[in-house]
Amino acid sequence: MVVARASADVPIGDDVSHVEADLNSLESTRSAAAEIRGRLGRELPPLRCFAGNAGVQHTDDLTAGPEGFESTFMVNVLSNHVFVRALEDRITTGGRIVITASDVHFGDLRHNLGIVPAPVWKSPDVLARPRAFAAPETTAAGRTAYATSKLAVIHLVHEYARRLPAGVDVVAFNPAFVPGTDLARNAGALSRFAMRHVLPLLTRTPFATRPDDAGRHLADVVLGTRRAPTGSYVDRGHVARSSTESYDPAREHELWEAVERLTTGAPE
Fold it and tell me: For 47-264, which CATH class?
């Protein structure tokens, strides 16, 4: 769903248009992005912001979309790139692009609580396909794919900040661990039960965020209520540094070149 708002003073829900898309499909994502682009300025007001908040986590590194891209990388990285490239020149001056990242990209116990393995960076062409990680049939491989995709998001935000039109900011947003959502819907019954009924207790500590609070923080970042320079990383309600590994201009350029090729050319 894309929400197009003429100004921050318009109450949410007054004017909402939606375009259906399967973000696990490159063709479907391209089609949705093109349709939204075509509506802007015709039946929709100018676009002020874009929130790339969709994300998936699988219990293996074998799941692929119709074009053969690994599903975690397709949804969390490539689909966002398609929308950013299709809409970047339609966003009004002073507008903002926000892509949801995750603190699991740090890869340490403080940020992943021992639940999600650390990211394992590889060539983007390898990451974009199934079986990028050891024991790809395991939950550990699926969660490694998730952590690595969120590191890729931050790399791309840094590169977008260098390349986007002047006057359009781009920010990576970390909601922290948000139990109570359907992110673990593909996990086993025990993990789903824990996510729904046990782990929400962590929201009473600094290690987790209630869904309502995560949504409020995201809205603040998207609408510019939370000030953040372009290319920055917002950890819930404040600007922070992302992991040391996430600052790598050479890797960021390589990733940009790869996602450009993968999303504009014909899949192999």
Answer: alpha beta
